[in-house]
Amino acid sequence: MRERNMVGIALAAAAAAVASLGGPASAFEQGENVHVANVYVKTPLSVSTNVFDATSKTPVVTAGLQWGGETWTAQIDYFSGMQVMTPGSAVTDPDITSPEYQIFCDYSNGAFAPCNQSPDYLARNIVVDNNTGALSFVGGSNDYWIGGSYYPAVRDRQNGVPDVDGVWFSHTWNATDGKKWLVPDEPAYFLFARRPNDKDTALTCTLDNGVAFKLVIQKYPTMTKDGALALTYGDDGNVSGAFKFDASSDLMGWKSGIPGTKLYGDSTSIDRVTGNIVVANSANQSRTTGHCALRSNARAF
Rounded to the nearest 5 degrees, what angle is found at the Cα of 144, between the Cα atoms of 142 and 146? Predict the structure, then answer.
């Protein structure tokens, strides 16, 4: 599995902040020594997904993917200290030397609590090793998938986290446990699904421009309507997309192209009766078409 960072966007923003010396968001200059901080989750496999968007009106997000029933290797990581505003420079003078880790669940009303104290949270079975930051998940039935957003957190056991102005991609927060934590500005997303098996429908989709990719259709019998996932595989052979769809509809689709391939677009739609696929790109008003399988008059997947 490819090594990917759950906070690629945040780290890219950090690099952009370092490289952008005259932007309105920062008065820092090349070579200046400033304080930087962030906390994030590293996971070996991440995917583009729409499972966190019930209305399909918001962009697809990136989530860490964990196969149900298998050992999880996700890990909370962080940086907090001084950094010279030069691209590629390392963080020095760390202000967290004896880290303590936690992970918080986000309720719909905006209240936060450690996940192991959140009995009503959908994916409440996430457990963090407070000493190492390693995450684990107590899996359940394979007849459903679970998705959730979480806030990883870190603090120094003795000193908490510093009140320092600077280049922050995170913020401090006083938790219900009475401790002050460093948490990211944006949550980390995780999707838990069963690994594909022979009962799933596996297709190869070939587009007119020569791009081909594997598509696996998973149906979860204990879920209705959105109880189905379309798993797309990228050029490296790994799952790169996990999109929910209505299993009773003739059409399925998502608001992006084919993740992990050379084909980009704003939306992808697949006719489950004809097998026809369309990837639209509004930037140049193009439409790339193709076919996933030879279809009959009856829906086959």
Answer: 110
pLDDT digits (tens, 9 = 90+) for 167-211: 788 888 777 677 888 988 888 888 888 899 988 999 999 999 989
> Is residue 66's pLDDT more than 70?
yes
**12 membership: H or E segment, kind and range:** helix 8-19
Residue 217 phi, psi dihedral angles, 5° rounding: -100, 120
CA–CA dist 113, 121 (Å, integer)? 10
Contacts with 174 (C-beta within 8 Å, 6 or more apart), sequence order: 180, 181
Distance CA 128, CA 114 (A): 10
Q: What single letter denotes the amino acid at residue 217?
A: I
Residue 276 backbone phi and psi in degrees, to 5: -75, 140
Q: 204, 124, 152: which is closest to 42 by C-alpha?
A: 152
pTM of the model: 0.79
Distance separating alpha carbons of residues 137 and 236, to the nearest angstrom: 27
More confident site: 91 or 30:
91
What tokens appear for 185 in the block?
């500005």
Q: What is the DSSP letter of 134?
A: B
Q: pLDDT averaged over the chain?
A: 80
DSSP state of 135: E
| C-beta separation of 170 from 184 below 8 A | yes
